[in-house]
Amino acid sequence: MKAVLALWHREIVRFLRDRSRLTGSLLQPVIFWLLFSGALHGSFKPGGMDYGQYFFVGTLAMITLFTAIFSTITVIEDRKEGFLQGVLVSPVPRSAIALGKILGGASLGMGLAVLFLLLAPLAGVPLELDRVLLGLGVLALLSIAVTGLGFSLAWVMDSTAGYHGIMMVFLMPMLLLSGAFFPMQDSHWLLAWVRHVNPMTYGVGALRHALQGEAPGIPSFAVCLLGTALFAVATFALGTFVVTRRSARDAV
Fold first, then answer.
1. Using CA atoms, how far apart are residues 224 and 155, in angstroms rounded to an integer?
2. What predicted TM-score, i.e. pTM, was given to this entire model?
């Protein structure tokens, strides 16, 4: 546990000391929400609600995903700087390395999402205690899930440029096809099929159920919550697997 806490603490401190990263992470979701909600205000009402209300939940999911992406890039940086090799040759279990890095990134995503959640009344989303607590639980699961996925991808990548490429062709479509930006129930049959196998769909759906009560065209809250929990377990298991798998590249 000392190793897990040390790695978790290192991720938090690195983030707080990087002013440009801190500023960008705080302002980016607000700018996205303001631009999209302002541009589509009055012209697009998904589910009968104002687009700002609809996209607010999607922005929360976007925060967790983007934070996971940028926090797990440090895996590649740590390898280049030699820090990762020092950790790997220590007597610390490799599963502890995965847990510490994933919890660090998930904590950052969760923290930024909570700060943005405080703006919910401005979007017309009421902050009721029971719904907020339920939403925080979903956000915690989703943060662990997407950070575990980002960590697994970053661990097997050799360069940040390659990781950014994978992000654009894999992680961004997951968000776009999850219903975070637009409802997907009336989409083309191919996209509708992708929507059902996209794990982000269930995370976004669970957030909508938790914070807004109703989520037309989305599976029930129980199904969404189960899908999000399985997503978190699967990505954490994948992260542990790629760390424990030994390779010659670990010593490079």
1. 28
2. 0.86
